[in-house]
Amino acid sequence: MNIQLTLAARYLWGRKLRTTLTTLAVVFGVVVLFGMNILLPSMLQSFQANILAASNQVDVTISHKTGEAFSPDLLDKVARVEGVVASTGLLNRPVNLPAEFYDNDPNTPDAVSTLSLVGLDPDTARTVRNYSVDEGRFLENGDKDAAVIAKTLADALGLKLGDTLTLPSTQGTAALTIVGIRPARTIPGNEEVLVTLAEAQRLLNQSSQINIIEANFAPGDEAKRKEILSNIEAALGDNFQFGALSSGTELFASLKIGQVVISLFGFAALVMGGFIIFNTFRTIVLERRRDIAMLRSVGASRNTILGFILAEGFLQGVLGTAIGVLLGYLLGVGSLSGMSGMMERFIHIKLGGPVISPGLIVTTILLGIGTPIAAGLFPALAASNVAPLEALRPTPLEVEERAMGRGGIIGVVLIVLAVLGLFSGQTGLAGLGLLLFLIGLILIAPVLVKPIARFFSALMAVAFARDGIGSLAQGNLTRQPTRAAVTTSVTMIALAIIVSVGGMVASIRGSFLDIVKRSLGSDYLLIPPAIAVWGNNVGADNSLADQLRAVDGVGVVGTTRFAAAAANDSAVSLLGIDPVEFPQVANLVFDSGEAQTAYAEMGSGRALIINAIMAANLRLKVGDTVALTTPEGMLDYRVAAVASDYFNAKIITAYISQANLEQDFHKTEDVFIQFNLAPGADRAAVEPRLRAIVAEYPQFRFVSGQAYYEENALIFEQVFTGLYVLFLVLAIPSLIAILNTLAIGVLERTREIGMLRAVGATQSQVRRMVLAEAVLLSAIGTAFGLLAGVYLSYVMVTAMQAAGFPFLSYAFPLYGILSAVAIGLIFGVVAALIPARQAAKLEIVQALRYE
């Protein structure tokens, strides 16, 4: 093995440029994979600490599986369990604050954007936790409009003992007098505002309700503690969870999805790096056929040849992985450092040190080292199986052409199967077809290199008519069609991603803006701080809607209420609507069932309308019965229809009547309000009166339907521009691939270039020849990339339709195609700069002596 490593190391050292380029492919993939998978787990750990912060000083924290409130009578059941020495009930709700709520200055960042309103029993709470106070006093039974806050919140808002803290509440703005200031908050999480339980129930319109039980146990061993916990579980039933609170699950889900996307992003980069390395090793084998034959003839075994070629991949993998891990670590730590100040300022979460799991290290090492080894395996096997006499002879052209022909036939068959899968209407077959399509293009690429190169070289002949550069470039590429095909495959994958993202962006943008128009049927909206994640919003009681209805010139007022539920172990965002008023101010886009029938069923019994994501994930259809987890236990609801709206299209959502929401979930809080003007009303006269009413409820933003549509159109533009930038980064390996192939080509043709210079070719002509090769390579890769990208974009939209977005319609990725063409050609020119300069500066005599 030592001789194999020595041979590999000497060869790599002797080909520094080539080694650098192939190693960069590994480095790029490892940086993305390792760096991003440090950042997201670190954020997840900090948020998890935030959610667990409420339970880190007590033996058990109990909440309903849905996160909804429940009767305080359950507290007695916990207290009666043998071994429970103290227990208390809380009403704990996060409160999203509207922008500029405290500083009223849009030019400066908000000091606080989210608070936690915690209602507690001053007597029992202090038997469970130590609520120390630095200034003033703690809460007392009978306190009204009184609050205790931490010093960190007081400092952030410039408050002191006796000052007034304002908060949004269901009755409008609440003014609380600060009677106590606790020590500065040191654990991650939202700043807490402590009030009495009765006050929290009043402010949140949740009379006689709690949503958390905290309890401490008698001292004992671990077995005794487990027995107490088991007895509490038996007393409360299956609808409660113990330990972490259920709030924040949407955030965790989003972060984990982001982690999966980033991991796939890094994996794709490594795959493209594998293509580059495969191309390099294949060329190495072809270059060294005579060297390998000489080694075989003097006694080197097949295993020796196989070993030293694989050793090259191993050494490059180790070097690339080591550099990539270091740069990825710096990327992760730098990102955390840059974000920590913002996170601590806005939501009081201190991001800790980088989280590096053993699994991440193992995965990175396996992929980083395994990719170049796997990429070099087939060329190494091919080299080890070549007989010495055969290797000493030039490879017959017809042998290579015969192999290309067989691959081309297989590629055509795979492409035909892929097209059949696309039109089958089955998402699984379409996804399999995508893989077959890409493999088919890769196999057919060597056959198509010559005709495509001829076509593009004919176009280039116009630019280089006098020099014949286009013909030379074409000949150089078609001399090694397989190598050119591997390079264009890397470009194809990178540009296919850009085209497919363009198609997906165009489809999502057009479809979502269309559903915005169809969903927003009202003249005005009262929007809370957070859309779709309704649970963190403090809404209003029915007095706000009643005030709006009383305004002369206002027509129908429709309200939406929220409760968290669960079905088949999946969290469900449950929205309560009035079946009569809601259709007059908003529109659901129905996929199954009839609107009129569904609303009628909803008003007459336990019926619900589910959105398409819920139907897809829970495999439900119209007429099915679904059991919902509620504070009253498991209750059956009948699916009346499948329909979606803009606000809740991305999460599992169901709509029930407000009567059922109040009866089964005890929720009467309006979190979203839509209303219309009466026919003939004077908008200019009515609007000031509406704004005056809404001003008393600062948690809502008053906006017209048209203005909200324009806002969302702008948001889509900004978000999707960021997506384009993100996926543009994935095109970097194609730049490395073209650069690598051109550099190898220059080394291979050193003597040939020397002969061209000897017969009168100028440095400028040599540079243009290499540049023409680069343009031809990138043009071929771009052509394949456009084909693959259009197919991929269609498959992605089809998959999203099946996953719960049936309202999506496919849009042809025109902008994605234009972007891919521009990027492909520009990258081709950029990649040619170094090899062209290298070729032009070759010394004629040295080039003619090159072996």
Radius of gyration: 33 Å
Structural class: alpha+beta
Note the beta-strand portion.
15-25%
Query: What would the average pLDDT be, to the nearest integer?
Result: 77
Q: Which shape, going by the Cα principal axes?
A: elongated
Intertermini distance: 27 Å
Q: Give the fraction of residues assigned to helices.
A: 55-70%
What ranges have pLDDT less than 50 throughout 5 or more consecutive residues? 51-56, 244-254
Number of strands: 20
Regarding quaternary structure, what we see is: single chain
Largest sheet: 10 strands, mixed
Number of helices: 28
The gist of it:
By secondary structure, this protein is an alpha+beta fold. 59% of the residues lie in helices and 16% in strands.
Q: Overview of this structure, please?
A:
It is a single chain. By secondary structure, this protein is of the alpha+beta class. Helix content is 59%, strand content 16%. The protein is built from 28 helices and 20 strands. Strands 1, 2, 3, 4, 5, 6, 7, 8, 9 and 10 form a ten-stranded mixed sheet that branches. Strands 11, 12, 13, 14, 15, 16, 17, 18, 19 and 20 form a ten-stranded mixed sheet that branches. The radius of gyration is 33 Å and the shape is elongated. The two termini are 27 Å apart.
